[in-house]
Design a protein that fits this description.
Number of strands: 0
Strand content: under 5%
Distance between the termini: 100 Å
Order of helices and strands: HHHHH
Number of helices: 5
Shape: rod-shaped
């Protein structure tokens, strides 16, 4: 064997060893990538569970701290109060229109003020059910009163605001 062949053979062996090292390094990198992927997947799963746990702990802490268990009965009372006021206003308005000698002009400020209060309360109150029905009742009553002949301009403007607030329930 000549020197050139020996050198070429040594280069081939070194090249083969380098190929083996590159293959080993590639396998280690692939396994490391798979391990990181599995760990990341587990972390995401655990963080979802931790998120739900933290959320439930925060909710229970807020309920205990601010006594939020009372809100549900309070909102039921608010629902019933607003419905009762609307019914009373509708009955009173119907009665006022049916009376021959009663003038609507003297009571219009009271009607409009009560309707404005109900509309404001309606926007703030958390209704458990019948929100659309109550909104439509407010809209219908406001529209009926605003069409009265002897309604002054200030009351017409206030009723227009109420009608605009509750217009979305007239569908």
């Amino acid at each position: 064997m000549s020197k050139d062949e020996i050198v070429q053979e040594l280069f081939n062996q070194i090249h083969a060893m380098n190929d083996d090292y590159i293959a080993i390094i590639s396998i280690v990198l692939v396994l490391t990538g798979i391990a990181f992927s599995v760990l990341m997947w587990l972390q995401v799963r655990l963080s979802g569970v931790q998120y739900k746990k933290m959320k439930s702990e925060l909710l229970s802490e807020l309920i205990d701290k601010y006594d939020l268990k009372r809100i549900s009965p309070l909102s039921i009372d608010a629902d019933n109060h607003i419905k009762m006021v609307i019914t009373r206003l509708a009955i009173k308005y119907t009665y006022t229109l049916s009376e021959a000698e009663s003038s609507f002009e003297s009571e219009q400020d009271d009607f409009v003020a009560q309707l404005c209060n109900v509309a404001d309360s309606f926007e703030r109150t958390v209704f458990l059910k019948d929100r659309n029905t109550v909104g439509r009742s407010i809209w219908e009553l406001s529209t009926a009163i605003s069409e009265a002949k002897d309604l002054n301009e200030f009351n017409k403007l206030q009723l227009k605001e109420v009608i605009d607030k509750t217009e979305k329930y007239n569908r």
